[in-house]
Amino acid sequence: MAPVRVTMEVGSDGVAVITICNPPVNALAPAIIDGLKEKYTEAMNRSDVKAVVLIGEGGKFSGGFDINVFSEIHKTGDLSALPDVSVELVVNIIEDAPKPSVAAIQGLALGGGLELAMGCHARVSTPEAQLGLPELSLGVIPGFGGTQRLPRLVGLPKALEIMLQSKSIIAKEGEKYGLIDAIVSPADLLKISRVWALEIAERRKPWISSLRRTDRLGSLSEAREILKAARQHYKRTAPHMPQHQACLDAIEDGVNFGGYSGVLKETKLFKELVLSSTSRGLVHVFFSQRATSKVPTVTDVGLKPRKIKRVAVIGGGLMGSGIATALILSNTPVILKEIDSKFLQKGLKMIQANLEGLVKKGSLTQDKMNKTLSLVKGALDYSEFKDVDMVIEAVIEKVPLKQQIFADIEKFCPPHCILATNTSTIDLNIVGEKTHSQDRIIGAHFFSPAHVMPLLEIVRTNKTSPQVILDLMTVGKAIKKVPVVVGNCTGFAVNRTFFPYTQGAHLLAHLGVDLFRIDRVISNFGMPMGPFQLQDVAGYGVALAVKQIYAEAFRGRTFESQLTELLVKNGRNGKNNGKGYYIYEKGQKPKPDPSVQAVIDESKRLANVMPGGKPITISDQEVLEMIFFPVVNEACRVLEEGVVIRASDLDIASVLGMGFPRYR
Ligand SMILES: C[C@H](O)CC(=O)SCCNC(=O)CCNC(=O)[C@H](O)C(C)(C)COP(=O)(O)OP(=O)(O)OC[C@H]1O[C@@H](n2cnc3c(N)ncnc32)[C@H](O)[C@@H]1OP(=O)(O)O
User: Fold this and answer.
1) Which CA distances in Å does 637 have to 291, 642, 647, 657?
2) Is the pTM of this model over 0.80?
């Protein structure tokens, strides 16, 4: 690997090209920061240098400050690991230098990378370069002057959108808003940047310090209105995230007292946030997510993923149609198999509806939708399975049915074909009991809706071959999922870890705690919804189907009640029929249904667990602990049994599969 370094080459034209080299993304590690300071100082001192072009090696400008430094600070609590970049390097050495700089951007300029570029006096970029300040997604704010320079270059509304939503834009859009001065081809990037830098030095092009600009900020009253509205919005939508308000504080300081004051405020807030628990959580998620793609004996043994050209999905229900949608959206042709034409048409309609939903949201064009839809073909038998590379079975959770399907597909599919099941609970050894192809059997556990939820839990047995695991991981990434490889057990990693989540909630309800209060406490903690609403959304069929399976697998740590059966008897089926613990009406938020109390009372009477027949008194904190501590205990078992290879895999699976708040 190329060494971490900054180089400088001075051409006969008098331009010093300063190059950042720290593969794979040219992160601004402390050694790079030192190198930049050194080379810039040299460039300023040399009489043969008239101007500077700043560029990144390997087709990428920079992916920002080195996030490993944050991890280090989280371990030690020592902020001295943070180099002084904002004032010393960006303001004093680059922006206020006696010689101008041009940033030559290719590939990406994110976070500190874009902030360095904004400290330069002009930015030339290739068209598709990705530009953004994603620091808030790491629990901090831009710390090299980004909160001040971005609004001064693109105006307040666009700058807020980019920073507060951690949203990147491509250079072409950047040019429209004034962030980029010129778009050029990769071949011309360096040449044009050099000429541009010289023209600034010769005052034939403007020499602009973005920190001193005010023309894009609008009037003071307008700016304050925009900031006030943003504050209110994020108070509501990100109540646990200090970084959004801090970002607005830094911007507001600059609006009120000037860019340099804003830079100082930003530095102060940035340092406070680096130490916050939010940043600890979010940085942990950043590295944990990347660690999931490293699976010992699978990704480190020199295997190459095979090409998966065609996939068959068995079952066109909610899961099967979602999986098929995800596959065709990534240009993989799919055969959707159902048992009769009525079910097949229903499945195909669901796929179409999934795509129409994306068109409505603006993330798919009508034309692309038609092309995508043409990639799915219906089938009522296995005749088309002779040339598929992977089958994903997604039928109801019935053991004999699944066993039969696997015995059939083993006969009809080519011998290399991967045989995957989307079961969420059933042991894979049982699913594949009637086949001879144990090495090709694997779990592809998607989360509903499968074309939206980002997690793909890949379940391997002792016999699944590393090649098959690698192939499914590669397909998972191609369809934009985060694949997490786990071992085989009842419920696998996510459902197994979270089964006590529902159990704890049910136990509390039977001890007399109001279930709507439980849901409130859990959603205030940051889960997308409480356990009772989740049960409504998943439908009671799932709860009833897994009840017995869990009771047998996890004897002694399940709480059994008749509540779900009683709800069904009472004509309730959750969101499916609009009536569960909550009432669901089209276009309205779910409303607690007071009449469900009678059903709960009946279940409480049957369970008879309230001490002395009276409801317990319990604080909100205790409610949280009663629900999450058993989850943590189960997570420890999952880890101890080797179901996951590292604790952080379970963290990622919980965040992406259950919506566990990533900042926690
Ligand atoms: C003071 C400043 O304001 C503070 C900051 O700048 S904070 C940093 C802001 N920048 C970011 O948040 C960008 C983070 N990086 C990314 O979003 C993505 O990595 C990317 C879009 C740059 C590239 O994505 P992709 O090509 O899919 O590669 P990806 O697997 O994510 O990353 C490749 C490797 O680079 C590492 N990496 C990426 N950005 C990094 C960074 N800023 N610091 C350290 N390592 C980084 C990843 O950890 C990964 O390492 P690994 O191979 O050992 O797992």
Assistant:
1) 21, 8, 11, 19
2) yes
Which fold is adopted by the domain 494-658?
A: N-(1-d-carboxylethyl)-l-norvaline Dehydrogenase; domain 2 (1.10.1040)
Q: Please state which CATH number belongs to domain 311-487.
A: 3.40.50.720
Given the structure tokens 């290719």, which residue do they identify? 106
Question: Atom 30 of ligand 1 has which residue's CA nearest to it?
Answer: 290
Q: Tell me the pLDDT tens digit for each residue of 551-595.
A: 888 998 999 899 999 999 999 999 989 999 999 998 899 999 999
pLDDT at 1: 58
Give dist(CA 73, CA 411) in Å, integer: 56
Superfamily classification of domain 5-284: 2-enoyl-CoA Hydratase; Chain A, domain 1 (3.90.226.10)
Pocket lining for ligand 1, CB < 6 angstroms: 24-25, 27, 63-68, 108, 110-112, 115, 134-135, 138, 142-144, 146, 290
Name the nearest CA neighbour of 116 among 163, 161, 62: 62
Burial class (CB in 10 A: 0-12, 13-18, 19+), 518: buried
Degrees to nearest 5, angle at CA 198 with 194 and 199 = 115
User: Catalytic: 338?
Assistant: no
pLDDT digit string, tens, across residues 31-90: 999 999 999 999 999 999 999 999 999 999 999 999 999 999 999 999 999 999 999 999
161 is catalytic: no
